[in-house]
Amino acid sequence: MCVCNPHSSESYFFHTHTQKTSTMADEQLILIDFWASMFCMRPKIALAEKNITDYDCRVEDLMSDKKSSLLLDMNPVHKLIPVLIHHGKPICESLIIVEYIDEVWKGEIPFLPSDPYQKSQSKFWADYIDKKFYPASKTLWKTKESTERETAKSEFIENLKLLEEELGDKCYFGGDHFGFVDIALIPFYSWFHTYESCGNFSIEAECPKIIAWAKRCEQREAVKNSLPEMHKISELILGVRKQHLGIE
Fold first, then answer.
1. CA-to-CA distance for 104 and 78, rounded, in angstroms?
2. How far apart are CA 149 and CA 187, in angstroms?
3. Residue 190 dihedral angles phi and psi, to the nearest 5°
């Protein structure tokens, strides 16, 4: 049974920050961001958990085909967000960024465990989220074909149930402490209403422990202030489906 305290003393502000901090490592910190991207939410949560508030969010317009010169300069290989720029040097890929933040701004409780085996398991499940769970979730809202959508929904639920099994009765995926796998998965919670609307199903009915875990995570200031409201994601994505994909 979970008995951990979900509350955190850290505070986080969603937009650009100008607040001064006591460490030189916080200087010249830029995050190339888009508010609805679950991958961009990850570094924002990680920074907030480390109480890093003095950084600049540069918003990338994903609704446009044109990528900013900053993004192209900082991530010329993949040309994708998020990108964290620290002292002029880019760090790309959301999970790599989270690990970088964990190593640069060390706190009392790291995101990744020190034990090599436990660390490997955390990285395994975070990788599973990106390689198995995310593709099914993307197909679920993007596809026009009903048969393909039903297949994606089945895969989505199956993948989420496996994550629920890994969570078990723990407070967080790492046990009593909010960590790497939690940061990897919790941004998808802001998309849950969208997935349910597109797939016509209830995530809570299928995976009640995942919903309980998500609500526990949401009580943390770092998470609560980093995730957009579900209905705003739904409005955006349903609009994209209709305008760009021709899906009513």
1. 24
2. 22
3. -70, -15
